[in-house]
Amino acid sequence: MLTEAAPSPATKADTGPMLEVRGLEAWYGESHVLHGIDFDVRAGEVVTLLGRNGAGKTTTLKSIMGVIGKRKGSVVLEGTETIGLPSRAIARLGMGYVPEERGIYASLSVEENLMLPPKVRDGGLSVEDIFTLFPNIKERLKSQGTKLSGGEQQMLAIGRILRTGAHFLLLDEPTEGLAPVIIDQIGATIRKLKQDGYTIILVEQNFRFAATVADRHYVVEQGKVIDMIPNDQLDANIDKLHGYLGV
Amino acid sequence: MFELLGIPPQALFGQVLLGLINGSFYAILSLGLAVIFGLLNIINFSHGAQYMMGAFVAWMCLTYLGINYWAALLLAPLIVGATGIAIERLLLKRIAHVDHLYGLLLTFGLALIIQGLFRNQYGSSGLPYQIPAELRGGVNLGFMFLPWYRGWVVVASLIVCLATWFLIEKTRLGAYLRAATENPTLTQAFGINVPLLVTLTYGFGVALAGFAGVLAAPIYSVNPNMGADLIIVVFAVVVIGGMGSILGAIVTGFSLGLIEGLTKVFYPEASATVIFIIMVLVLLVRPAGLFGRAA
Ligand SMILES: Nc1ncnc2c1ncn2[C@@H]1O[C@H](COP(=O)(O)OP(=O)(O)OP(=O)(O)O)[C@@H](O)[C@H]1O
Ligand SMILES: [Mg+2]
Predict the structure, then answer these.
(1) In this predicted model, what pLDDT tens digit does every residue of A109-168 receive, in sequence order?
(2) Is residue B107 in a domain?
(3) Protein fold of A19-245
(4) Per residue in B66-110, pLDDT tens?
(5) What range does the domain containing B165 cover?
(6) I want to staple B72 with a disulfide (CB 3.0 to 4.6 A). Which of B61, B128, B229, B272 is the partner?
C-alpha cells in the first residue's frame, strides 16, 4: 500500500481516512467529558456513534465541529488539522452540522432558515432538490421556523446544510422523538445521501434504525470509543451491544 | 379661532410637533441600543456620549473644515461608527466572555471619559450650529407654523428607523444578524463570521447615535452634556419598549415623545416625569416591556 511512503497531505487525503480523530478530549467549563476519543471515517461511509445517555456522543460531534469551549487532541479532515480552527472555518472545509436540538431559528422564517448557511463549495443541492426530498418544507416557507412540527424541523435542519455543498455531515439523533413514517423518510434520505457520495457521522440511540443506514458502528462510553462493530457483524455481536447500551 | 378643550390649536400642535421631534431622537437612540443589546447583550451606556460626538463631529467638520451639514450627516455617523468599531475590537471583545455587567460598566466609564474630554476642550456652555440654509424658515399650515428643519428631523429619523427595520427584518444580512442574536454558536458553525458581525453591529448602533447627534446639532446647542441628559430618558424608553425589539424601539420612541408633548399641553407639571411613570407601570405589569419577549 502507498501508506509505506511518506505521504504529502494531499496524497494522504486521497488514500487515508477522510476524517481521523485521535486523542480527542473536551471540557464543559471545569468538567472533563471526553477522555481521548479515537476513530476514523472513510470517504463515502456512514458511521454511527452509539452509546448510553451521557456517554459523550453529542460532545464528540460538537468537538469535531468546534463548537465547544475547550478541546484537545487531533481532528484531521482531508489532511487539514482542524483542532485549532474556529467553527466557521471548519464549516468552510465542507462540514455540515445538524445539532441534537435541531437549531431551527425562531426569529427566522422557514425560508430564511433554509437560506441562512452560506454556500461553502459547489455541488450543493438546489432549493428545488431539497423540496423534492422534503415536500413539506415547500408548503411552509413563510411560517416562523419554530412553528414547524418536530419532523418538519428535522427535515429543515438537514435540508439547509445540503444546500451549502457540505459533503461531510454530522447528524445528531435525527430520528429522536419522531413518528415511524418520518423516521423511515429520514432513513431513506440518509441512504440516498450515501449513494450520492456524502460521508456521514450519525449519532443514534436507536441501533435498529442505525443498522438500516450505517457501514460501521462505534460504541462510546464515558468519553471514549470502546469498540467498533461493522454493520454486517451486528447480528453476531448483538448481545455484546445490548450490554454496552444497557438494553 | 377654534379651541380644543380650552387649548389654542397653535399651542397644541406646537407641542405635538415638539413631542414628535423628541420622539424622533428617542426612536433612533433606543433603536441603536436595541440592536446592540440584541447581539452583544451589552447595555451600551456610552450611547449618549456617542450621540454627543455626532453633534460635535458635525460642528468640527463645519468649523475647521468647512464641510456642510449634508455631508456631515453622512460623514459624522461613519466617523462615530468607526470609533465604535475600535471600541468593540479593542475593549468590548476582551470582556465578551465575562458577565455582561462588565460591558455596562465599561461603556459607562467610557461615556464619562468621552464627555470629560469634550468638556475640557470645549467647555460646557454649548456651541451654536446653524440650520442649513435649505431648511431655514417654514410654512404656515393654518393651524400651526411648521419650521422646515423640525419637519425634516421627523422625516429623516422615520426614514432611518424604517430603513434599519428593513435591513434587519428583510435582508440576508439581517437574517445573519437575527440568527447570530438567537444562537451565535450555531450560526458560527454554519460558516458565518459572527465576531465580525458583532463588531459591525456595534459600529452600526453607534453610527445611529452619531446620526441622531447631527440631526440634533441645529436644534439644541452642541454641548458635551447633551447626551447625558437625553440618554436617561432613552433608557426609560427602552425599558418600556422592551430590550431587543426593533419595531418596539421605533414605535415606543415616537409614541413616548408624543405622550410627553401632550402632557406638556394638558398637565405641564407632569411632563418631565410622565415617561418614568409609564416606565414604572410597565415594569409592574409587563417587566419584559411592551414589545419584549419574556425571558
Ligand atoms: N452544556 C454542558 N455543560 C456541562 N456538562 C455537560 C453539558 N452537556 C453535556 N454535559 C455532560 O457531558 C457528558 C456527555 O454528554 P453528551 O451530551 O455528549 O452525551 P450524549 O452521549 O450525547 O447523551 P444523549 O444520548 O443523552 O444525547 C454528560 O455527562 C453530560 O452530563
Ligand atoms: Mg446527545
Answers:
(1) 999 999 999 999 988 999 999 999 899 899 999 999 999 999 999 999 999 999 999 999
(2) yes
(3) Rossmann fold (3.40.50)
(4) 999 999 999 999 999 999 999 999 999 998 888 888 999 999 999
(5) 23-223
(6) B61
To test the pocket of ligand 1, the residue of A33, A204, A219 to mutate (highest count of ligand atoms within 8 Å of its CB) is A33
Q: CA of A182 to nearest chain B CA: how many angstroms apart?
A: 25
Instruction: Tell me whether residue B203 is in a domain.
Output: yes
Domain ranges of chain A: 19-245
Q: What is the largest CA-CA distance in chain A?
A: 56
- B114-164 pLDDT per residue, tens: 999 999 999 888 899 999 989 888 888 887 888 999 999 999 999 999 999
Report H helices in chain B.
9-40, 47-65, 69-90, 101-122, 148-170, 172-182, 184-189, 194-216, 226-241, 246-266, 274-285
Question: Distance, CA A58 to ligand 1 centroid (Å)?
Answer: 7
Here the ipTM equals: 0.90
Rg (C-alpha) for chain A, rounded Å, is 18
Residue A50 CB–ligand 1 contact under 6 Å: no
C-alpha cell at B260: 410627553
Q: In chain A, what residues touch B186 (CB-CB under 8 Å)? A: 67, 97, 99, 103
Tally of structural domains, chain B: 1
Residue B116 CB neighbours (<10 A): 12
